[in-house]
Amino acid sequence: MPRNGRNNGRMPKVVRYPHRLGPDDRRVIARTFVPEDSARKAAILKRIMRLSDEQVLRALQQVTADFDGRHRNLEVMLARRFDEVAGMLQVRKDISEPRRLLIGAYCTMEYSLESVALFNPSLVPHPDQCDLAPGEVRFIMSLRACGEGHISSIEFRSGVIDASNEVRFDYVSPYAFAARPLADRQYEKHTFHLKLAEMSAYNEIAEHILQDLGDHFTLGELTRTVDAHRKEHPDRAYVSETADNILWLARSNYHLEFPPGSDLSERVIFPVSENESRGIEDARFVRFVHPDGQVVYYATYTAYNGFRILPQLIETVDFNYFKIITLNGRYAQQKGMALFPHMVNDHYMMISRVDGENLYLMASDNLHFWNEAEKLMGPARPWELMQIGNCGSPLETDRGWLLLTHGVGPMRRYCIGAMLLDLEDPRRIIGQLASPLMEPVSGERDGYVPNVVYSCGSMIHNGRLVIPYAMSDLATGVASVALDELLDALTKSARGKKKAAVSPTLTE
Fold first, then answer.
1. Handedness of CA 81, 82, 87, 90 (dihedral sign)
2. How much is the pTM?
3. pLDDT tens digit string along 169-194?
């Protein structure tokens, strides 16, 4: 049964559920394992090729015995790895299938996705709501998995919240795998042009390269065109720089597809591009309804390459096929961008923290470009004086946009707060809780980063706000609060106080 959080009689009563999703170091994916040094690669291949056919079969049998139970379709995975590395190793084409598979095995390593943590969840309704009892809703929870080297990726869990607001999680597969980017995905020339201009990378060389391409082109077509221009001007440094920028942009925008019928809990979005090489952090998923009624799930996340952070966008309709897209514009920066679940006043809107400290409201007529922002509020209460941010996308209620926030206070303690924004004009703050809605309690304070409760997105069901939350960057729990009780507290907080000023326009 759920257990109650601390309640002083004035704050809404938070109910904590017994669920605790902790890291499982047995969940592994297969990653490429090839030395960068060309001489080493050649030496390793030479040693493998010296093995007799009998030695190859024995070694491959041992690999199968040791790893077949840890990966779904091990042989298929090793064959794909061979195809991936054959070119860089310059392998002969006439070698036997067992030797191909063994080369694939030598060029593969296991990576434990959750060996450090499983945290920072977001919660959205599942695209499939069939075969449920009255009052039930099926959900998808995204989670940030952290492993060796603090490399973060995105995993998923599913389950059902019943009519009594009890939470049931579905079976979690022991297998996990990361999809590879689709080689034949199409890029749209006009959008590509706009993004290069935003990067200050559109010049005469970029113009010539794009002129040689169709209105839509693949990465292979782009790479061949870029290489041709490099050869035409081998000694011009700015040609090489422009070419690198173009390819960087293309590789930062990619598509992933998981095998049909694969279990949702097996699907992993693992870093692919250079700008996310050190991790994909804090995905904030939202079920977005377009004006024409089309439903698309979007998520903003933070790409990290070890030196800088960059906000990116995920797009999916079924959690099987994903588009990864760069976000651009003056205010597409910093962490923690959260998209509203539909357009407001004919604009896309986001809550963000563009200066790393304050809450901002952003607006745009293009989902991928963000050049307007207005400060919504700054840290004001003792528990949030270091910085504030959002805890996921705003939720629409009949009394306003409900926005969960996080605040950082003394001893770098993270708490979750709440505020209410006007439905028609989200720049207008209706109310804000004076004290945290949730704070780290006993059993939640110890972890990779102590004294933290944090969420990347909640959902409303049967009159309750269901909040998945991270415990000190280690594990994930679930809590809930009566929606009316929370809205009453937020509305009451606004009485007798001067309402927030409304600026006439957003900053451009």
1. positive
2. 0.91
3. 999 999 999 998 887 788 999 989 98
